[in-house]
Amino acid sequence: MPPNDRYLTLDSLRGRIEDGEIDTVVLAFTDMQGRLQGKRLHSRYFLDVVVEHGTEGCNYLLAVDVDMNTVDGYAMSSWERGYGDLEFVPDWDTIRLLSHLPATALVQCDLVWLDHSPVVQSPRTILKAQLDAFAERDLVALAGTELEFIAFNTTYEDANRLRYRGLDPVNQYNVDYSILGTTRAEPLLRDIRNTMYAAGLDVEAAKGECNFGQHEIGFLYADALVSADNHSVYKTVAKEIAAQRGQAVTFMAKYNEREGSSCHIHLSLRGKDGDVVFWDGAQAGSGGRGKRSAMYDSFVAGVLATMRDFTLLYAPNVNSYKRFADGSFAPTAVAWGEDNRTCAVRLVGHGPSARMENRVPGGDVNPYLALAAMLAGGRHGIDSRLELEPELRGNAYHSDKPHVPHTLREARDIWAASAVARSAFGDEVVDHYTNMADVELKAFDAAVTDWELARSFERM
């Protein structure tokens, strides 16, 4: 059933269409790059045809680069295979109103082949497979994603004409936690918050961040699949609202040489009836608060043990790796600490609030893939009964702990050769996302950057 009463059921959507309140239904899935892709359907066609028979799209949608160019190397889709169709299967628990658009609702969907077998390379399917593995153990995953972005008083069209340099950020100084700074951007932030609430998200707060024009809007944790769905909708809608206002936002991991934009991911497990499994009851000498459970420790140990193997799913782009800098609040050390923001994994809370925070992902992350990686890593830790290493105290940037990969190429090579990745996700998924990295690396290697021009045009 839908997560809350701000979602629509299929019956209530049908009623709104019949009453003329809704005339457009967006049917969308999340692609490899974390973007919503799909179709805008006339509401009458949606009711008369799509509800019963579904709709299709070209299978190249999971085999293109960020510019939608068809590229070589994907087993599921190619010129040789004829670029056939796959089917969009609506998830009726995801129906939302999009209040920033007139008379429009959104339905998110899964992807299957025409014989109804799952498209295993689809990000939503990858996450659902990991969730199913925990469901078999009577466990559910709860998650929250904290996305940062930079907002500009520049349109997307002007930003393109300016080649994304010299844009006008909504703040001209560090506004971290500044009420005045968020007030300056409040018309945009308010529109996003209220639109997201109407779309079913539980909004917590907006706050300023460190980079000029950088902000974060936080949402309450939810079932991991719901959080991933919400994340994808939020990124799309935030850009649409900004565009409507003659502004722009970017979720790039590293827009400039100042602070990057993160996506810290909080995750915990519960029993199927809501039982707390990451925490044991009050223990002697623990101040009456209890302590971490053995399952929690093994889960975190598994995430750490697979951190380098799975970094490609946490940091999927060339630009992602520019964020990993000493003293930047972006992690470099594969280590954990209690409430320690210098570590890749930060443990916070106790009792029902006990959870791990993965600080590696940036604002460009695909939430389905990152959550799937955390769950796969945690499951590896539980199954292997891994022991959690001692907590890192102090500054992890100055530690001798293993480093997250420095580049996309390094992460790609570790992922492609990883036995634990192939065991957790299967060869089809590993090979598919290895090729995604290869496509990005080939494009980047062929590009002449602004840095090269400025450094070499006259002086070399």
Give a description of the structure.
It is a single chain. With 460 residues, the protein is α+β, with helices and mostly antiparallel strands. The chain has two domains: 10-117, Ubiquitin-like (UB roll) (Roll); 131-455, 2-Layer Sandwich (Creatine Kinase, Chain A, domain 2), CATH 3.30.590. The chain is built from 14 helices and 17 strands. It has helices at residues 10-18, 43-53, 123-135, 156-161, 179-184, 186-198, 224-244, 294-305, 311-314, 367-383, 408-416, 419-425, 427-446, 450-456, and strands at residues 24-30, 36-42, 55-58, 85-90, 96-97, 104-112, 139-152, 203-208, 214-219, 222-223, 248-250, 263-271, 279-280, 291-292, 333-338, 343-348, 355-358. Strands 7, 8, 9, 10, 11, 12, 15, 16 and 17 form a nine-stranded mixed β-sheet that branches. Strands 1, 2, 3, 4, 5 and 6 form a six-stranded mixed β-sheet that branches. Strands 13-14 form a two-stranded antiparallel ribbon. Helix 3 packs parallel to helix 10 and helix 11 (408-416) packs antiparallel against helix 13. It is globular. Mean pLDDT is 96; it is low at 282-286.
